[in-house]
Amino acid sequence: MKIWSTEHVFSYPWETVIKAAMRKYPNPMNPNVVGVDVLDRSLDAEGRLHSHRLLSTEWGLPGIVRAILGTNHTQTYVQEHSIVDPEKKKMELCSTNITLTNLISVDERLLYRPHPDNPDVTILTQEAIITVKGLSLGSYLEGMMAMRMSANAIKGWDAIEWIIKNSERENERASL
Amino acid sequence: MNSVGEACTDMKREYDQCFNRWFAEKFLKGDQGGDPCTESFKRYQRCVQTAIKEKDIPVDGVEFMGPNKDKPES
Questions:
Q1: How many Cα atoms are found within 13 Å in the side-chain-facing hemisphere of B53?
Q2: Which of B4, B27, B63 lies nearest to residue A54, judging by beta carbons?
Q3: Between A and B, how many CB-CB pairs are < 8 A?
Q4: Which of B12, B32, B45 sits opposite A43 (nearest CB)?
Q5: pLDDT digit string (tens) for A117-159?
Q6: Distances (CA, A) of B11 to A32, A77, B15, B47, B53
Q7: Is B2's CB within 8 Å of A99's CB?
Q8: Shortest CA distance to A53 belongs to which of A29, A16, A24?
Q9: Alpha carbon distance A121, A18 (integer Å)
Q10: DSSP label at residue A151
Q11: What is the ipTM of this complex?
């Protein structure tokens, strides 16, 4: 089992960041995400918005790799639950893979909040628990996955920034 | 962005546009009344649930509740 965590600050207010986070896909940094669907959405008694989403990812795995992994499917799926609290200004997002679970489990948690030292910017705390199952190279592969997650996290932050800047351009054009 | 069910993509986009507008202009500003997206969500959901069954995607038991229904805290 490998636990990985990181923090990142976006130089935008919380509302701007989470509007972008809710519309994160598609973006050029995450081309492997090929489908996003909302499975369920509801408000709880405290006025928080819960969303359950399904993400489809396509890795373009060659046939032989798929044969080794024992899967006929080319797409892997991730299920995600997010909670947006507009009063407390918190967005929490948890995700887990629901395919290839006999091989690997990646559980991620993201928390977006205004930065405690500067309410005009947003801090993202991100952590993952990675478990590779049933292989003697487990801890080595977990290490590799953690490195991959670091690289992907950076892409994820760039993706949010890209969405924000894209929206700013759209707003400028609309107001002309 | 596409839906997991190819036939659902247009419905998904229609719902997403409605939701994104409501989210930005109402929800985040403290106005939670009157979700305008219920109809488009229902249409979209029917399609997605069918696609999930057809593709045998192991989604864990999230029953379709639709927006604005109170859910017990998990």
A1: 5
A2: B4
A3: 91
A4: B32
A5: 999 999 999 998 888 876 656 777 778 888 888 888 899 999 9
A6: 22, 21, 6, 8, 18
A7: no
A8: A24
A9: 12
A10: H
A11: 0.79
Three-class secondary structure assignment of B4-57? CCHHHHHHHHHHHHHHHHHHHHCHHHCCCCCCCCHHHHHHHHHHHHHHHHHHCC
Which pLDDT score, from 0 to 100, does residue A73 have? 66
Please tell me the number of Cα atoms within 13 Å of A81 on its side-chain side: 13
Q: Output DSSP code: residue A95.
A: E
**Predicted confidence pLDDT, tens digits, chain A (176 residues):** 778 889 999 999 999 999 999 999 988 888 888 899 999 999 999 999 999 999 998 876 666 766 776 666 678 899 999 999 999 999 999 999 998 888 888 899 999 999 999 999 999 999 988 888 766 567 777 788 888 888 888 999 999 999 999 988 887 888 77
C-beta pairs of A153-157 under 8 Å, 24+ apart in sequence = A153/A6, A153/A8, A153/A126, A155/A29, A155/A30, A156/A24, A156/A29, A156/A30, A157/A8, A157/A10, A157/A124
Q: Is there a contact between B65 and A42 if contact means CB atoms under 8 Å apart?
A: yes
Across the interface, of A18, A39, A42, the residue whose CB is closest to B70 is: A42
Q: Which residue, B74, B8, B56, B26, is CA-closest to A38?
A: B8
